[in-house]
Amino acid sequence: MLGLWLVLVVEAQQVPASPPLIQEWQVPWARTRPRDPFVAPDGRVWFSGQLGNYLAVFDPASEAFERVDLESGTYPNGVAVDDAGMVWYAGNRNARLGRLDPQSGEITTFPIRNPAVRDPHTLALDGRGQLWFTVPESNRIGRLDMSNGELELIWVPTSNARPYDIKLDGRGQPWVTLFGTNKLARVDPVTLDLAEVTLPRPRARARRLEVADNGDVWYLDFSGGIVGRYRPSSESFDEWPIPGERRARPYGAALDGEGRLWLADQGGRTMRLLSFDTQGERFLHDLALPSPSGTVRHLHYHAPSNSLWFATDANTLGQIRLAP
């Protein structure tokens, strides 16, 4: 285990007085690409080991890891934990969703019985009994009724759009990045009608997004190294280049309780975590990871502990404790 706290802040424009604290732990199963951590109601952190074909849980109190092996060929991607503590995952290579009961160890799978749909990717819970997910290479967005296992699929009209990240707004509408083109998508949860929103630049490729409480949609343009904001109320855009010596390649993203957008940048020589003040419209933190070579594919904000969780391709699980 690394077990060391790192405090390292490089000034971007204006840095708050109390810097965040970063800690990383070595995941005990080597070269398994841990990813997509999600904090359960009991405070433990679940994540997937994509190349190791497992789910795992980390207890921050004891710093202990436990592993649950999945069926061969699953290659789990996205993870989400519902209010009852059930752990949901996307089987990225066996065309199914899964649910793990941590108490009994029972795993229930929900196959996607459509030969054209094979790669569920990122998950989003709506808090109303529905699990939304993206299927990038199959050009679909899906919804699972968690009570009866009924699956519905929505076709994206733009060819090779690669629906990638998915988040819900306050009205329960899913917003999706279409990583294969310069568009976002919005789905009506009642009719399942899909509307596409074209970004200002033809070469933009939004990979991750977050939806603020006021309905603003924040996106990270992986191709252009840009933070963008789309306001559905006015159908307007604003964009800010991410500072740095090289063009940023923003990947993981999360909004914290203060309205700061956190992003992981893999464009430079080392992995950085930056924050952007969505109210003041300026960049704040610029942090270096203890494991600088580890790509961060996903960030998860946990409000009760005011912290961000991440996993890296350097085979670590990490926590960023934010200032109170």
TrEMBL record:
GO molecular function: lyase activity
InterPro entries (alphabetical): Vgb, WD40/YVTN_repeat-like_dom_sf
KW Lyase (keyword) present: yes
One Pfam family matching this protein: Vgb_lyase
Keywords tagged on the record: Lyase
Source taxon at top rank: Bacteria
Lyase recorded as keyword: yes
Protein name: Lyase
Organism annotation: Zobellella endophytica
